[in-house]
Design a protein that fits this description.
The chain has 3 helices and 2 strands. Helix 2 packs antiparallel against helix 3. A hairpin with a 2-residue loop joins strand 1 and strand 2. It is globular. It is mainly alpha-helical and 69 residues long. Strands 1-2 form a two-stranded antiparallel sheet.
Length: 69
């Protein structure tokens, strides 16, 4: 299920990711959702793609995420 805005993201993502990282997650997820539409496991793939996109620009510090230096 694609997300139309950051407000539609799961609570766990909204609580721990900064707004910019939420947007990265949402955009990557939505793109992967469309790209892998023929796959039965497309939601799992879209989540992995979205987290990989976030990890390119952010790092986890404790329970929260911060931009990489």
């Amino acid at each position: 299920m694609p997300y139309s805005s950051n407000d539609d993201l799961p609570d766990s993502i909204r609580r721990h990711l900064p707004v910019h990282a939420q947007s990265i997650f949402r955009e990557a997820f939505n793109h992967a959702w469309e790209t892998y539409r023929a796959r039965a496991d497309r939601e799992a793939i879209a989540r992995r793609v979205a987290w990989a996109a976030v990890k390119r620009g952010y790092e986890k510090i404790g329970r929260d995420w911060a931009p990489k230096a």
